Amino acid sequence: MAEAADQLIHLDLGDPAFPTPSHIIDAACRALKAGLTHYTEGRGIRKFREAVAWSEGRLGLEVDPDSEVLATLGASMGIYLAFLACLGRGDEVVVPSPCWFVYPQSVKLAGGRCVYVNVGDEFRLAEAEEALKQAINRRTRMMVVNTPHNPTGAVLNVDDLRLVRDLALDHDLIVLSDEIYKHIIYDDASHICIAKMPGMRERTILVNSLSKTYAMAGWRIGYVIAPKQVIDAMERFQTFIAACPPAFVQAAAVEALRGSQRCVEELVRRCDQARKAALSLLGELERVRCPKPRGAFYLFPDLSGLGWESTSLTRALREKAGVSTMPGAMFGPGGEYHIRISYAAPVEQVREGVRRIVSFLKTHER
Ligand SMILES: Cc1ncc(COP(=O)(O)O)c(C=O)c1O
Q: Rounded to whole angstroms, how far apart are CA atoms 295 and 274?
């Protein structure tokens, strides 16, 4: 057991196990030497906001860098600010589940109430239309959409997003669109941005960050795109909480967004390689179902056929097999009897980690 723990393989955190590309690090060093060590405008330096508008513009979304962009301390801060700016005490937010575990906590901190709708592992919102409708009442103010999705790797299709749009328009909801994995997609999948759908621009808060795409999770830089009055409110909250993201980090982020995107292609290629290796190994477990992820970098296998409760299993895997994963129970209703495996790591590391999981499960059925 001590031996296994010594060489623990981490397939737990959603933090790519690759270095930040060197041209981005160089830009940060240049910015530090040039004296970008002070507070910036509350909504971020103009060059950063312009780079965001340019980068989103390439994906077909027209954005005004002066009024519609806010630089944030990662997507996490953008999400929290969105709830702070839009929710009154007791207002409800519909969150399709399983889901990233921070949304409910963030809603709660902002004084709101999270209403989960379990849509299952395939994460097809269109197939959960009735349940989603039933979750909406007169206190409902917002709905969260996360595509590509953490933890299942699902990429929402046009029917899923049309349903969200119809619900938002019928019930006057604001949609929080978390697009942090939008550049990490595989095969023939494509990302659809709900803000581009008719009637949605004015009721969408789009959140993104550089944490995943550019392996910059520790830099804490992200952004929000939203209508002017929402950005104004969010800026006020961020100013009181944290002033602004660091100036030299914003400068490095400009280089990331505007510079060569070869590093992103390379990240996706490496994740894809690891995804295929992990899926093929998991395929050896007959009683385990694992939908093929089409985006992000997580596998979320359903282990209910083996009878393991997720927290006991992740503990056993860590202590007895030397591999660290996340218990599905953390991801809300529909998450129990699953584990989340993060495969944003070198393929050999992922292969060895998943091999350990598979061999443990083959010999330790409940
Ligand atoms: C779906 C999703 N949104 C937002 C975040 C937060 O990212 P950050 O605050 O590092 O930008 C994460 C991180 O794991 C995530 O998985």
A: 13
CB atoms within 10 A of CB 239: 14
For ligand 1, the distance from its centroid to the CA atom of residue 307, given in whole angstroms, is: 30
CA–centroid distance, 342 to ligand 1, in Å, is: 13
- Mean of pLDDT values over 86-105: 98
- Summarised one tens digit per residue, pLDDT across range 329-355 is 999 999 999 999 999 999 999 999 999
User: Could you tell me the sign of the dihedral formed by the alpha carbons of 12, 16, 17, 20, in that order?
Assistant: negative
Query: Residue range 79-104: average pLDDT?
Result: 98
Burial class (CB in 10 A: 0-12, 13-18, 19+), 192: middle
Q: Where are the domains of the chain?
A: 2-16+262-363, 37-258
Residue 4 has pLDDT above 70, yes or no: no
CATH number for the domain whose boundaries are 2-16+262-363: 3.90.1150.10
Q: CA–CA separation, 101 vs 332, rounded Å?
A: 7
